[in-house]
Amino acid sequence: MKNLVVHPVKRLIGSIEIPGDKSISHRAVMMGSLAYGTTHIRHFLSSADCLSTIGIFRNMGVNIKQAGDRITIQGKGLNSLKPSKKILNAGNSGTTARILLGLLAGQPFTSRLTGDKYLCRRPMKRVTAPLGQMGARITGTDEANLLPLKLEPRKLKGITYKLPVASAQVKSALLLAGLFAEGKTSVTEPAPTRDHTERMFSAFSIPYSRRGKKITVQGPVSPFKGRNLDIPGDISSAAFFVVAGLLAPQSQLTLKNVGVNPTRTGLLEVLKKMGAHITVTTKKTRKGEEPVADITVYSSNLKGVEVGGEVIPRMIDEFPILAVAATQARGTTVIRNAGELKVKESDRILMMTVTLKKMGANIKPTDDGWIIQGPTTLSGCSLSSGGDHRIAMSLAIAALIAQGPTTIMDTVNIDTSFPGFSKFLQKVSRF
Ligand code: S3P
Predict the structure, then answer these.
(1) CATH of 4-20+232-430, one of 3.40.50.261, 1.10.8.100, 3.40.50.720, 3.65.10.10
(2) How distant is the alpha carbon of residue 420 from its chain centre?
(3) Coil, helix or strand at residue 300
(4) Beta strands at 36-42 and 228-230: parallel, antiparallel or unpaired
């Protein structure tokens, strides 16, 4: 129950080296643990979520050493994981739980997987149902919808599956199960979602194909070797400072070495449409590596925008902070097709409506988004984050431009994705 008190700022100035990408850090540990030989990871995100992933693989016998943001994994190959004596615990991390279900379903031993009280409320059937079609045996409450879940060893067979919702976690779970299954596993996504798993496959020389919206792996795959991985800064963490720099007066912020994979940059596109002054300086990366850039933002007058359709999955984690930006934009912002926000770490449609309303914003929830009228003056007050890291950080940014101090309650979970967030905020704030 850690509270964060945020005071309004005069301006924001400076530069920040954004910590490593959460999605890529998880996948790096998973793939390094399945490879044989050494995998070195640089700029790993040492956040609670990613440490949950490391803990799980250590429990399955993988030798993983950590020194700050450097990780060394001594992998013993695709079929080297050992049954854990303990129940595996994904903590608050939906990505760990969902992707891991795919990986565990293909193992020749029984596993049990659980998470914290927030994760145990989040739907898992989206993964366990298609894994069931592949032959997996997974049991748990509400027809294997809720953690804790038990996975028993079964031989998997490849399937062709059309994702009912655009979800990189579900896609990745099925592709990882596909590595251990007999035959082809094909996943078709309704709209492009983050493709970090596919890029990891390329990095580890695991063959796969993409034709339009369909991604296919042929299992069981041959053993693959460990390698060195550099993780870019997390654009979903940079997003809070991007919006902060746009909203605070006379501000200029540079966010260094941020991953700008096009499946993640929806927020930048939407903000530019709103009139944001943002420059993106792309850096040279080696072929097949994740693209990286320095992003500089300048205070801007924003206008309302309509957001919906294919961009939604490319900015799915950025809606709480977009809602904050919309309260300061001239005119109406309408966000549609974002019903997935209801099943994130909290019901984000509800949480942002309640909290921003309390600060004085004109925000109406809809079934799959919001209608936000701006600009409105925000007032500092006392707010609950509902234990959701991205709600807590979005409210902290709103508080920078509010009148009077804001107290945000229950902020420990900021550490699940962005350790050091308030330290960075202090560093660039001028009062
Ligand atoms: C993630 C995918 C997204 C995102 C989450 C990370 C991933 O979830 O919200 O923070 O790493 O694959 P969904 O797949 O549920 O959309």
Answers:
(1) 3.65.10.10
(2) 17
(3) coil
(4) parallel
Residues 144-191: pLDDT tens digits?
A: 999 999 999 999 999 999 999 999 999 999 999 999 999 999 999 999
197 lines ligand 1 (CB under 6 A): no
To test the pocket of ligand 1, the residue of 237, 316, 347 to mutate (highest count of ligand atoms within 8 Å of its CB) is 316
Residue 127 has pLDDT above 90, yes or no: yes
Going by the DSSP 8-state scheme, the letter that residue 340 receives in this structure is: G
Atom nearest to 172 CA in ligand 1: 12
pTM over 0.70, yes/no: yes
Residue 210 CB burial class (10 angstroms; 0-12, 13-18, ≥19): exposed
CA of 25 to the centre of ligand 1 (A): 13
Ligand 1 contact via 234 beta carbon (within 6 Å): no
| Segment holding 40, helix H or strand E | strand 36-42
Question: Which pLDDT does position 18 carry in this prediction?
Answer: 97
Beta bridge partners of 209: 216
Q: Whose CA is nearest to atom 11 of ligand 1?
A: 23
Q: Does pLDDT of 288 surpass 90? A: no
Residue 194 CB–ligand 1 contact under 6 Å: yes
Q: What's the DSSP call for residue 318? A: G
Catalytic site positions: 317
Determine if ligand 1 sits within 6 Å of the CB of residue 175.
no
Amino acid letter at 396?
Answer: A
CATH class of the 22-230 domain in this structure: alpha beta
Atom number in ligand 1 closest to CA 343: 15
- Where in the sequence of the chain do the CATH 3.65.10.10 domains occur? 4-20+232-430, 22-230
Of 167, 310, 368, the one to substitute when testing ligand 1's pocket (max ligand atoms within 8 A of C-beta) is: 167
The pLDDT value given to residue 1: 67
Q: Whose CA is nearest to atom 13 of ligand 1?
A: 167
Please enumerate in sequence order all residues whose Cβ is within 8 A of that of 394, keeping only pairs 6 or more positions apart, or say none: 240, 320, 321, 323, 324, 352
